[in-house]
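Quick illustration, no need to memorize.
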Amino acid sequence: QVQLVESGGGSVQAGGSLRLSCAASGDTSRRYCMAWFRQAPGKERERVALIYHDGDTTYTASVKGRFTISKDNTKNTLYLQMNSLKPEDTAMYYCAGSGVYYCEMHDWGQGTQVTVSS
């Protein structure tokens, strides 16, 4: 069974930075896409950033220019560099991965908490 394990969350003041990592037990190069999602208390889960197998990326509007998603297939690890963090970025962050042929997420990590104080 494929496992995705996030790390790198924590507490930071507004304006600070964090880098999240997601270590995959399987070959990340075979996945059609991978993504970072977040969910704040009382809110719906939101896709923050996505990276396709060819390296193309997409971001939700609220994080564009501040967050960067990347993937190191030699380490089977997905990253999310988060800069200029804001209190509204506070959430549980999850990584997710699709299968080989379609960008539909079916593997999920357990999440890592990010808390940004003002």
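The two ends are 40 Å apart (CA to CA).
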